[in-house]
Design goal:
- By secondary structure, this protein is an alpha+beta fold.
- Among the domains are: about 15-75, SRF-like (3-Layer(aba) Sandwich); about 135-180.
- It is built from four helices and six strands.
- Strands 1-2 form a two-stranded antiparallel sheet. It has a two-stranded antiparallel sheet with strand order 3-4.
- The radius of gyration is 44 Å and the shape is flat.
Length: about 210
């Protein structure tokens, strides 16, 4: 029973398409190798899969450059000159772009203005005004961000300070006396209430100054 005829069209299933490519690629390479041996032919095959993976076959004893040189000699097409001309054209284009950018930079710095007409000067002024607006917006954004960060730090420090003061006052309310000099000062036995004033000094070396107010 013979194999069924395969319709020549794109295989939609990606897995089947890859399997078919691999099998037929190997078959083509085998035929190319047979041609090289049987007929002493110079064969070059370059193939790219749908995923742009390169596969190539080249007859022994000939390099890729030699093969293209032989192709140019036979067809009369100078591949390298064409490539060189394209590279030169690209170089000239990039050189012109660089020249314009340098001139634009000098003009923004106040130079090379003598050859500009009124319309070109107006366009340059508009560009500089637009750039100035963008710079100012960025500057104000940076200032606002720094200010908000500073305010947040100040609020955090104030909150920490308030919590410390509250904790100290709470501890003093439950203490029988305060340290004065080298001894202790006890509260009066007659039930007279005493007011403790707390003053917090903050400098390079913060310290507490506790005083008794009658």
């Amino acid at each position: 029973m013979g194999r069924g005829k395969i319709e020549i069209k794109k295989i939609e299933n990606a897995t089947n398409r890859q399997v078919t490519y691999s099998k037929r690629r190997n078959g083509i390479f085998k035929k190319a190798q047979e041609l090289t041996v049987l007929c002493d032919a110079k064969v070059s095959l370059i193939m790219f899969s749908s995923s742009s993976k390169l596969h190539e076959f080249l007859s022994p004893n000939i390099s890729t450059k030699d093969f293209f040189d032989l192709y140019q000699k036979t067809t009369g097409i100078d591949l390298w000159s064409s490539r060189y001309e394209k590279m030169q054209e690209n170089y000239r284009r990039l050189k012109e772009i660089n020249k314009k950018l340098r001139r634009d930079f000098r003009q923004r710095m106040g130079g090379d203005l003598d050859d500009l007409n009124i319309k070109e000067l107006q366009d340059l002024e508009a560009k500089m005004n637009s750039s100035l607006v963008a710079i100012r917006e960025r500057k104000y954004h940076v200032i606002k961000t720094q200010t908000d960060t500073h305010k947040k730090k100040v609020r955090n420090l104030e909150q920490r300070h308030a919590n410390l003061v509250l904790n100290l006052e709470t501890k003093l309310e439950h203490h029988d006396g305060i340290v004065e000099g080298e001894g202790y000062y006890n509260e009066p036995a007659h039930g007279t209430s005493s007011l403790y004033a707390l003053r917090l000094y903050q400098n390079h070396h913060p310290y507490l100054d506790l005083r008794l107010v009658d």
